What does this fold into?
Amino acid sequence: MIHSYSRLTQKLSRRFLFIYTILFVFLSVIILIGSVCLLFFQTRQTAENQLSLAAESITSYQKELRDKTYLLTASHELAEMIKNYQQYSTNENYEKVNLYLSNFQTGDSMLRFISIRSIDNTVFHSLNSSSTHIQEYLEKQPHYQDLSIHNSSYFSPILKEGFENETPYCYFLSCQPLNGQTFLIAVCYDAQSLVNSLTTAGDTLSNITVYNNQREELFSFPHSFFNKFPIYLEDSSSSVGYHIDKTGLHFYLSGYATSTYLIETVFFSVLLKNYFFLFLCLLILYFIPLAAALLYLIPVNEKMLHPIAMLAEQIHTFSLGDNAVNILHTGDEIEDLSLSFHKMTVNINQQAETLARQERNEAITYYKLLATQTDPHFIYNTMNIINILARQGNFNEIIQVNTALTRVLRERLNTQNIVFEKIDKEIAALKQYQTIMDYRYHHQVTFEYDIDPSVLQLVIPKNILQPLAENSYYHGLTREDGSISGTIGLVIYEMNNEVIIELSDDGSGISPETLSEIKVSLQSPSQIVSEETTAHIGLENIYRRVQYLYHDNFSMDIQSTPGYGTTVSLSLPSIPPDSTSEKKR
It folds into this structure.
């Protein structure tokens, strides 16, 4: 089996296949052209022979009809009977003429009907059951009327109408002299033998069509092919020839003796059937050498190209972190290449592991910096509060504020050692921060808690609630005069194995443009944003820390309406990542 990854084998096979196919197509075209020429000449010879036989059949048939007509008009007995009727127009004399015509018809089994029409429109006809119907049919034909005026003759197409048994027949009309007068004689003759002869010619090829000198279709088999008289017959100056169109080959013969045109049609579909065996042979001749060549390439590929293909596959599929590739022992230059690539993969993995360790240490350091980030203004303002309380002599309040500040700072510093903390402890730390803010802003901010008791023992990233609340204090509830007042609400619950944290305020809200910039800055920290957006840096701090811990397994959404407030929603997995212990270090 030829390996699909052997590019050299594929290239060699494609080149061989291309050259082989070009040569084969060239030889096949020569064979096909020769075959087409040979088939054309054979078909033409067959068609001309069939047309000649068909023309002879038509000539013989028409001659027999004329002979019957001349024999009838040469009868002195018939002439005397018609003369007696013209002198004595009695019914008896009329029936004698009809009886004579009937006896004449009976004498030849091929005769179907005979009628004689005089100038005064007296019609004599052979006696049979269908004489009335056939006579009526003949009188309706345009040629029957024309010949009554012009002395000429006419051979009809092969018909079936007019007789009850509907066997094929032809009628021959001619004007003949009797007793010094001209009579129109109609002779209907059985055409089954003629149909059989023409059908045999049509069966040999595809289709045969016969026209008379009035451009009428006399006969067609197996079906009528032409809608009208072919133009190429009118333009042709030769009695024998052929015409080619999109349907096939049309061989024609003009019979001057019978004033007929015979067309033998050979459809291209019939010609293609004759080529089926030739096409089959060509396909066999194409695939046998090809299969033999491929059977030769198989061992060549296995012996010479397979090690190269294996080495190429190793190089193509190797990626950082994969085990070192195996060495191909071939005893030649391929083995040297394989050994060099093996050493290179070992060195690459070692270097990649060193770089990954450095990046990991840098990421941990960055996380700790984010987690312990403290606004110096917050410490300064808190110390200022303690100073004011000391001047006022409020020692109990000093103790409360100092205790709260100590706990807040301790929680910030402990973030370097503890990554996750239970929700109840985080809420306790948030309340210490709230104590400081209440003293600072004279209890103008109401903080409402709605915590589901079932989530108190679940863990979330440490020191994540205070930055959310701090963002609401300084950006949501701050008025234009610098005062802070309003309501902050914290809701925490669990849904679908996720801890949902929602912190909202009823402050001034965020404009749509600024909110859009904030969301862009969270997704793309390098994005250049406005000064107003930069004021919400606490949200980006939270986002980066959560992203470091949970990667893409979290969501953070900000909804705000100017004049009505802002809500920050954070969804975290109920179970922290497995790498928690690793991040603690």
Observations:
- The two ends are 55 Å apart (CA to CA).
